[in-house]
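// run 5 | inverse folding | seed 20
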């Protein structure tokens, strides 16, 4: 509208000017010309102001787009945008083979905890810079979140090992502590172009998880074995609920004997009598459920079964105990103490008859909290056992403060030793250590009479292993107990 008005005004002024030229009145002519110049100046200013607003809006809009598509700390694409860009790249360049690489920084939590968040951010920025400097224009990369990054690159376009090695020389320091930043990378060579980009990254991540804890091997490719594992994981995860309901999954019992060879209890060991896959040992399914967290439900079921069995044992059998396994993952999904206490109350069981087996890995995180839980167990009358002592994370230092009753030593970690004399020395000293700390000792994996005699002489208190009996059904266990008693 203002455009129409100013044009009308301009038209009127020009008309007036022509008229004045004819009339010969130059004063009026001057005035009109000045007026015209003022109008022109005002008009230009207005256009300039409008242009500035348009420019400012456009910049703000671009900034908004940038903020929404780029990660704040590293300036790389965010996960959603990265997936989108990768989808387009794969769809557009159909004749090019691509790889998906998923990588993360080893122990990034330690970087943040020890060196502070500012150093953590700076490490992430360095990774981003390393990516920018070492990539070619065909690469699409971004930050997937946390310390995880993703790349889509033409197959064989880079010597990733060389690149990764170059980056893994990066050291950070706070003056007193130095830490080497190591990255691990999982790669999925895209063989199925039509699957979701997120699934491609799942596959690369699976490859990554196969090397995550290794110091020397940093890169792994997704392969057929991993593919089969994923299919297996999915299958058994879908079936476990029904398997529990139908009691295909149940505890087996392996006798535990004292230094007179008498059965004093048993360990509950899970078995799955699968209708199609046959009789499954725990190593074929426990790792799957530990990875996806379903172990919590499985363990709750086994603990309940153990309580149910204990509650039916009367007479001589009422003195027997059952040891249950607690997975380190259980602590992440439930209040383990509350869960087990509720069970023994429900089944009216003396807590000392339900022994608690934990492994050293339980103490790897949240040490204080875990110690408090074990203390609660002991104060409530449960017997706490440290399972697989010596085969995992070395907690010799923690051992002095840990609320424990029994040290459970696996013969396996000694049988791998070529030097049996040295193995004996270790065993003797571990048993002595256990006694000196006021703990009972239990050796598992005892397979021969000679081993039993030797351990007995060394002062071991309790024994478990194929020499006495393999894990068996509850029925079988009850029968051998009755036979012994009779
Ligand atoms: P673990 O707790 O160390 O259990 C002892 C394992 O050693 C059992 O294997 C047992 O069958 C085996 N074993 C016993 N005596 C001998 C022997 O003389 N020689 C040899 N070579 N092996 C012997 P299994 O039953 O296959 O269990 C393997 C692991 O699976 C267990 O190791 C435990 O970590 C886990 N597991 C079993 N049941 C459960 C469960 O209900 N919950 C959880 N979270 N884990 C379980
Ligand atoms: Ca155990
Ligand atoms: Ca064990």
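// decoded
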């Amino acid at each position: 509208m203002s455009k129409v008005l100013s044009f009308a005004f301009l038209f009127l002024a020009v008309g007036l000017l022509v008229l004045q030229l004819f009339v010969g009145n130059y004063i009026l002519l001057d005035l009109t010309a000045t007026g015209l110049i003022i109008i022109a100046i005002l008009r230009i200013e207005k256009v300039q102001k409008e242009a500035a607003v348009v420019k400012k809006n456009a910049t703000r809009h671009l900034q908004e787009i940038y903020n929404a598509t780029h990660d704040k700390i590293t300036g790389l694409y965010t996960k959603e945008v990265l997936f989108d860009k990768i989808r387009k790249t794969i769809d557009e360049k159909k004749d090019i083979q691509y790889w998906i690489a998923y990588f993360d920084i080893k122990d990034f939590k330690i970087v943040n905890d020890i060196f502070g968040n500012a150093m953590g951010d700076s490490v992430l920025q360095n990774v981003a810079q390393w990516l920018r400097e070492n990539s070619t224009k065909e690469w699409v990369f971004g930050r997937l979140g946390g310390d995880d990054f993703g790349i889509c690159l033409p197959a064989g376009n880079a010597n990733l090992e060389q690149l990764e090695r170059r980056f893994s020389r990066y050291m950070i320091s706070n003056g007193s502590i130095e830490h080497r930043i190591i990255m691990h990378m999982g790669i999925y060579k895209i063989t199925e172009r039509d699957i979701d980009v997120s699934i491609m990254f799942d596959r690369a991540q699976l490859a990554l998880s196969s090397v995550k804890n290794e110091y020397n091997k940093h890169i792994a490719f997704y392969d057929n074995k991993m593919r089969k594992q994923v299919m297996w994981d999915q299958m058994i995860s879908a079936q476990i609920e029904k398997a529990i309901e139908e009691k295909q999954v149940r505890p087996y019992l392996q006798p535990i004997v004292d230094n007179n060879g008498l059965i004093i209890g048993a360990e509950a060991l899970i078995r799955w009598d699968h209708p199609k896959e046959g009789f499954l040992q725990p190593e074929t399914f426990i790792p799957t459920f530990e990875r996806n967290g379903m172990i919590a439900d499985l363990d709750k079921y086994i603990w309940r079964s153990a309580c149910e069995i204990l509650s039916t044992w009367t007479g001589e059998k009422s003195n027997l105990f059952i040891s249950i396994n607690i997975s380190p993952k259980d602590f992440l999904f439930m209040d383990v103490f509350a869960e087990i206490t509720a069970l023994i109350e429900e089944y009216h069981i003396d807590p000392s008859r339900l022994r608690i087996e934990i492994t050293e890995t339980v103490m790897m995180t949240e040490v204080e909290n875990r110690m408090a839980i074990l203390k609660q167990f002991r104060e409530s009358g449960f017997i706490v056992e440290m399972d697989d002592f010596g085969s995992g994370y070395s907690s010799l230092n923690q051992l002095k403060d840990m609320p424990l009753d029994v040290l459970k030593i696996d013969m396996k970690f000694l049988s791998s030793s070529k030097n049996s004399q040295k193995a004996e020395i270790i065993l003797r000293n571990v048993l002595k250590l256990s006694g000196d700390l006021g703990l009972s000792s239990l050796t598992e994996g005892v397979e021969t009479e000679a081993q039993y005699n030797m351990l007995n002489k060394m002062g071991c208190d309790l024994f478990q292993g194929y020499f006495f009996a393999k894990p068996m059904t509850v029925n079988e266990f009850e029968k051998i107990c009755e036979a012994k008693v009779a």
